[in-house]
């Protein structure tokens, strides 16, 4: 089978969807398969990323606007490359394609909390996403919560939506040497203890309530907050809280951290804080648990499905609940902490990219049959 893969989003920020895409491709190409893969890039500079992989062809489609790229350039490539199936690891597809199409749904916060999206994105979510869902031969959902939301909000038949969980890079499971930890601590000026937030900052991440809860706990315990990631959109008022709550001296913002350094951050952190209003399959949760970092996260949507009993669950709408979770994880006994770390590592063990790639290929094969 000749599979085309839409990779317009590959040049975006280093967040979860790009990590997902790179890891999925890496393990799909490593699998024992006779399929051919045609990678479709919007940015010509990406050509060569997978040039050494057998059975992989890279094609540049330098059309600037997303809609024209999806609906004109990709449709042209489907015919020119004689593709048997088109696959997008994100969420769009060419409409009325000449071959079956499959896309990945990483969550539907746009429908659960539409106020958290920009107005022009809301137009896409209202008019385009439902069309993509109707056209798709199959949809991959990164959690059962995401699957149920696709069925509920997009009206897709249940048998066309398949749950395939993301994986965790083995680099997060491997112990980090003491010398490496100390080097990272020194380079980024990390304190002996710190809470860690990892990801983009935008409305579903609930960063304002996280800051307000942290203001009740962190300075009193002498535990700073390290924010790993970047500001995204509709978050200016949340970021202003750092100064308004007199937290400037307590909040450290190193920005995005490269993939190979991130395990050291998790290993050094007191806990990962991710009390999001919406997560479908938060990669930082899986990474932190794999690396032996306790997690404080939301008691709704994807986090309970991923974390189960291996983390501290809080009500993301309740600042006091978040604060209590922070205080608990920072002051628990050594035995309780070790038990939480062991439970997290065990829980994360079943989330592998090999499994994700195998199950994804199975769905693609069924869709093309």
Reported by name, the CATH topology of the largest domain is Rossmann fold
- How much helix, percentage-wise, in residues? 40-55%
Task: Provide the succession of SSEs.
Answer: EHEEHEEHHHEHEHEHEHHEHEHEHEHHH
- Structural class, please? alpha/beta
Strand segment count: 13
Percent strand equals 15-25%
Task: Please provide a written account of the structure.
This protein has 369 residues and is an alpha/beta fold. It has two domains: 2-167 and 352-368, Glycogen Phosphorylase B (Rossmann fold); 170-348, Glycogen Phosphorylase B (Rossmann fold, 3-Layer(aba) Sandwich), CATH 3.40.50. The chain is built from 16 helices and 13 strands. The strands form two sheets. The chain has a seven-stranded parallel β-sheet with strand order 3-2-1-4-5-6-7, with helices on both faces. Strands 10-9-8-11-12-13 form a six-stranded parallel β-sheet, with helices on both faces. The chain is globular and about 65 Å long. The N and C termini lie close together (10 Å).
Task: List strands and helices in order, with pairings.
Elements: E1 2-6, H1 16-30, E2 36-41, E3 56-60, H2 66-80, E4 85-88, E5 101-105, H3 109-112, H4 119-127, H5 129-135, E6 138-141, H6 144-154, E7 161-163, H7 178-188, E8 195-201, H8 207-221, E9 225-231, H9 236-239, H10 241-244, E10 251-255, H11 262-268, E11 271-274, H12 283-291, E12 295-298, H13 302-307, E13 312-314, H14 319-331, H15 334-348, H16 353-368
Parallel strand pairs: 1-2, 1-4, 2-3, 4-5, 5-6, 6-7, 8-9, 8-11, 9-10, 11-12, 12-13
């Amino acid at each position: 089978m000749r599979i085309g893969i839409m990779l317009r989003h590959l040049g975006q920020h280093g967040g979860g969807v790009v990590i997902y895409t790179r890891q999925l491709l890496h393990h799909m190409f490593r699998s024992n398969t006779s399929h051919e893969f045609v990678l479709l890039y919007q940015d010509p500079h990406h050509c060569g990323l997978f040039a050494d992989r057998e059975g992989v062809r890279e094609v540049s489609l330098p059309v600037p606007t997303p809609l024209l790229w999806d609906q004109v350039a990709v449709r042209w490539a489907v015919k020119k490359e004689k593709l048997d199936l088109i696959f997008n690891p994100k969420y769009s597809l060419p409409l009325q394609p000449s071959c079956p199409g499959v896309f990945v749904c990483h969550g539907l916060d746009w429908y659960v909390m539409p106020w958290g999206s920009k107005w022009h994105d809301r137009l896409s979510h209202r008019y385009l996403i439902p069309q993509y869902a109707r056209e798709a031969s199959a949809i991959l959902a990164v959690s059962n919560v995401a699957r149920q939301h696709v069925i509920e909000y997009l009206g897709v038949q249940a048998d066309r939506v398949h749950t395939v969980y993301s994986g965790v890079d083995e680099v997060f499971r491997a112990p980090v040497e003491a010398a490496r930890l100390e080097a990272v601590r020194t380079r980024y000026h990390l304190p002996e203890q710190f809470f860690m937030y990892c990801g983009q900052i935008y409305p579903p991440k609930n960063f304002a309530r996280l800051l307000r809860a942290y203001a009740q706990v962190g300075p009193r315990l002498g535990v700073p907050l390290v924010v790993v990631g970047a500001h995204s959109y509709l978050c200016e008022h949340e970021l202003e809280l750092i100064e308004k709550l007199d937290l400037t001296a307590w909040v450290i913002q190193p920005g995005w951290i490269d993939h190979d350094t991130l395990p050291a951050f998790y290993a050094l952190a007191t806990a990962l804080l991710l009390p999001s209003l919406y997560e479908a399959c938060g990669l930082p949760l899986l990474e932190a648990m794999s690396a032996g970092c306790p997690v404080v996260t939301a008691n709704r949507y994807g986090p309970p499905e991923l974390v189960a009993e291996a983390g501290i669950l809080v009500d993301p709408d309740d600042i006091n609940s978040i604060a209590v979770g922070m205080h608990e994880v920072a002051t628990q006994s050594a035995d309780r902490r070790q038990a939480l770390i062991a439970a997290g590592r065990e829980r994360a063990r079943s989330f592998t990219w090999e499994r994700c790639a195998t199950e994804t290929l199975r769905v693609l094969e069924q869709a093309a049959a």
